[in-house]
Amino acid sequence: MTFPQQNPARTGLRKTAAALGLAAAGLLATNCAFAAAKSNSELEAQYQREKAVCTSGQSNQDKATCLREAGAAYQQAKQGKLNDGQQAQYSANALDRCKALPAGDQADCQRRIENPSDVEGSAPSGGILRKDVTIVPATTQ
Questions:
Q1: CA distances for 115 relative to 48, 74, 94, 141, angstroms
Q2: How far is residue 40's CA from residue 38's CA, in Å, rounded to a whole number?
Q3: pTM over cut 0.90
Q4: CA-closest candidate to residue 119, choices 108, 132, 138
């Protein structure tokens, strides 16, 4: 059985796209990790981990750029300015997605977005799951 030869240009393009995707994911993870941290010691520990990734060459960026980005994110996080100011837009988008549901389910969807009883996951891990429990009494016959 023979297999068709892969076009070397396409293979290179795929590798480049994969590397760019990993670099973007790395930057997103850096920013999310800094945003999630609360205390100065947690911020410092995260910064040291990011520096280690930069110096080990695992960041898919050149070392100078990686260190500059990690340092900038660290400074922004220390000043409480790492939020990109788009949280209101993200919430509005989430509520807009509720409009695609049947009318009877839209109120439950909005309640899960605005006041969930439990939240699991993260964007870097693949998604955020918001739960809300509604107790419905049994009907008597």
A1: 35, 30, 13, 33
A2: 7
A3: no
A4: 132
* CB within 8 Å of 82: residues ≥ 6 apart: 31, 34, 35, 73, 76
Say which DSSP state 90 is in: H
Q: Could you report the per-residue pLDDT of 53-70, keeping only the tens digit for each?
A: 899 888 888 899 989 998
Q: What residue type is 13 in one-letter code?
A: L
Return the residue matching tokens 């977005």.
113
Q: Which two tokens stand for residue 26?
A: 């790395």
Of 77, 20, 90, residue with least CA distance to 47: 77
For 79, phi and psi rounded to 5 degrees? -85, 0
User: Quick check: helix, strand or coil at residue 122?
Assistant: strand
